[in-house]
Amino acid sequence: MIKAYAAFEAGGKLQPFEYNPGPLGDHDVEIAVEHCGICHSDLSMLHNDWGITQYPFVPGHEIIGTISAKGTHVHNLSVGQRVGLGWHAGYCMTCHSCLSGDHNLCAQSESTIVGRHGGFADKVRAKAVSVVALPDNLNAKTAGPLFCGGITVFNPLVQYNIPSTAKVAVIGIGGLGHLALQFASAWGCHVTAFTSSADKQKEAMSLGAHAVLNTKNPDELAVAANRFDLILVTVNVKLDWNAYLATLRPKGRLHFLGVPLQPLDLNVFPMIANQRDVSGSPVGSPATIATMLQFAQQHKIEPVIESFRMDQVNDAFAKLASGSAKYRIVLHN
Fold first, then answer.
1. 64 vs 85: CA distance, rounded Å
2. pLDDT tens digits for range 227-262
């Protein structure tokens, strides 16, 4: 039996829950959970904001632990090895995306917390192909958020071949944004942080920003016209997207990682005239996750976390929902 914490209705409190996972599949592994981050996606799933949650619902998709058992066809991982598991718990391995190395775009991919039970538990199961070994020198206590937030902000740097000479801006200095600053700065880019909070300016600089612009000041946005090659949007609120679009250089890219709750209002002519792109991306493939972990190890990139015990999960969710988490929350068994 696996012991977990589950919600039994939309927005409900998480309660102790046990379930029998059945026989371990030939291509599966079982992970003894040591640490599990809480992502805003867990909160959205808890409240069934996307209409796909099944109850009882066990959240948790930023998992660090050790392999406690493996299927007979699993040869790339060893019992006792420390690994991580993110948003995806399996792929079809036969579609064009999978065969091209873009497993994260697999239409038949299995999510760790959609239709299956996640990592707010003592153990979790997944297909071995979706599990990535953790480098020895990465801090296991803080690494969980790299498997969702970290790979989300790292993936576009790889996908769009962003050069180290690029000027990159990050909108929002929170769970995603504080990691985006670190990765883009370590990538070699000149990094600007957009924030509406004056008290975050020093923190943004300490996280790798070379400059900070106040989003509440339209004059600062106007001065930044035609400045950036890439803007990473990590927020989910409605902003004046045309004002940000104007800060892009020709062929610049406004790239969404957060999910704004309202449709985008964009003037097309400036996009056509300057050949600007508007795009978005999800988490990365297992290979890109492994590259990201190596990059984080090499450049000493680490999520800033607050820690809670696993049995404090409801307190942790309340902290996340309040917007006061700084910057990621990790549960520990």
1. 7
2. 999 999 999 888 999 999 999 999 999 999 998 878
> Residue 134 has what DSSP assignment?
P
User: How many whole angstroms separate alpha carbon 308 and alpha carbon 314?
Assistant: 10
Question: Quick one: pLDDT at residue 199?
Answer: 75
Laid out side by side, the sheet with 228-233 consists of 211-214, 190-195, 167-171, 228-233, 248-256, 277-280
- Helix segments in 29-112, DSSP class H: 40-46, 96-99
The values of phi and psi at residue 19, to 5°, are: -145, 155
* Count of Cβ atoms closer than 10 Å to residue 303 Cβ: 22
d(CA 235, CA 257): 8
Contact 3, 33 (CB under 8 A): no
**CATH number belonging to domain 150-280:** 3.40.50.720
Question: What is the pLDDT at residue 202?
Answer: 86
| Torsion angle (degrees, nearest 10) of CA 246, 248, 253, 257 | -70
Cα separation, 303 vs 62, in Å, equals 12
User: What pLDDT does residue 53 have?
Assistant: 97
- Residues 6 or more apart whose CB falls under 8 angstroms from that of 221 comprise 213, 215, 243, 244, 246, 247
Note the pLDDT tens digit of each residue in 154-172.
999 999 999 999 999 999 9
CA distance 207 to 23: 45
What per-residue confidence (pLDDT) applies to 217? Answer: 80
Looking only at the bridges linking them, the beta strands covering 15-19 and 2-6 are antiparallel
Q: What are phi and psi of 177, to 5 degrees?
A: -60, -40
Domain segments of the chain as ranges: 2-148+302-332, 150-280
Architecture of domain 2-148+302-332: Alpha-Beta Complex (3.90)
Alpha-helical (H) ranges within 106-176 are 149-159
How far apart, in whole angstroms, are the C-alpha atoms of residue 127 and residue 25? 8
**pTM exceeds cut of 0.70:** yes
